[in-house]
Amino acid sequence: MAATAPERSKRSPFIVELYRSALGKKYVMAITGIVGLGYVLAHMIGNLKLYQSAEDFNLYAETLRELLYPIAPEGLVLNLLRGVLILALVGHVVAAAQLTAMNRRARPESYRSKRDYVAADFAARTMRWTGVIVLLFLFYHLADLTWAVTPLHEAGDTVYDRVLNSFNNPASAGFYILANLALGFHLYHGVWSLFQSMGWNNRRFNHWRRTLAVAFTVVVIGGNLSFVIAVLTGVIS
Amino acid sequence: MNLTLRVWRQAGPDAPGRFETYEARDVSPDSSFLEMLDLVNEDLIAQGEVPIEFMHDCREGICGTCGMMINGQAHGPQALTATCQLHMRTFSDGDEIVLEPWRATGFPIIKDLVVDRSAFDRIIESGGYVTVDTNSAPDANLIPIPKETADLAMDAAACIGCGACVAACPNGAAQLFTSAKVAQLNMLPQGQAERYDRAEHMVEVMEEHFGSCTNMGECEAACPKGISIDFIAMMNKDYRKAKFRGRRSA
Predict the structure, then answer these.
(1) Cα-flanking dihedrals φ and ψ of residue B108, to 5°?
(2) pLDDT of A219 strictly over 50
(3) Which fold has domain A22-104+123-232?
(4) B174 to chain A: closest CA residue
(5) Which chain A positions have a beta carbon within 8 Å of B6's beta carbon?
(6) Residue A107 and residue A85: Cα distance in Å, rounded?
């Protein structure tokens, strides 16, 4: 029997309250990062059909538009997935920008003497830059293969043709390789880092976190780079 | 051994600072780093100059008062060692040693190598305590605590609050300090009453003064007590749970 009626909560929704803090923004970084990890892995696996044949690859690209059709209307599932990916990307970038601004405020005057880093590796210290490279690449990649409006090479009628034209162009292929290396460093630190941000820490599995980061990076980036190299060396033609 | 020191000199909080060069002559390899600075200061005083201001107290690595950037590393090149426990044998004859204060918005410089670390006190005030009856002391071992838990809590409690984690962090974040202070209580039965309020309040006060964690691990490497970044993950989890709590209907 309550003596008084419960007061109406004046607190904002849980997610807003959490996001206000830097720790909450790190949760957003981690969760949107996990969405991105799922995407790059699925993207790489789907593209393995490049090794089968032009028909298989083009069929795969077309089938994506008809995911779950005829259960769902044509294009619905694909566009829902696109919506989730765009939301995740915006969340990841906005949270990163806000956290970076906070970190700049936390040390406006840098050390005058040369810092000697012990634990912070190249990948960890360059997350902001590898992230920006990957973001710029993402727009090029969409213009190149999805919208077919690249200035670097002839577009081509099918997706398969566009991939081959793109990878046979040295400037375009170079950008793909550079962006994938940047993504590789980003994934290597991101996969490990998300466990800490999410508070997933257990001394039973902690030593697997680095291994998982390396394995995931090698699989995704190895697969992606293999497509470019296979085209450049004529294995796929 | 003879050494060249390049020391950050700054007369006051708002005064402009600059590096000054000093020679340290006939330094015994067995002397501690702070003893070496004492000798340099003796010379400066004899010459009528203002001695180098630095913080120190226990000089046995347990008070957390000393601390400075030595050649770009918090507490210098030797792992698991506070500045006072660093000995000159770590260096070689003829070395140049660069000394700089901790740099972070939360640690404003007072003078030379001395910074104001009272932002740490603000974090502790917001939740670094437990509620207990203030009667006569309770029986020891009244509350059974598994050995593993006690050991882990003790690992966290080893934090001496020196600020090396903030100084070493490329983001100027105080996650390692705060998480150690949260974890040492949150893991124990006595800390359960305020567990989630503690995590919430201490994190939020921390974020008023310091940057945010990017999981680089530089703090763990700089920590003279070897505090693990596992505690940071633990704090993140308790903070998330704290935000969830109180939203379910009673």
Answers:
(1) -65, 145
(2) yes
(3) 3 helical TM bundles of succinate and fumarate reductases (1.20.1300)
(4) A106
(5) 113
(6) 33
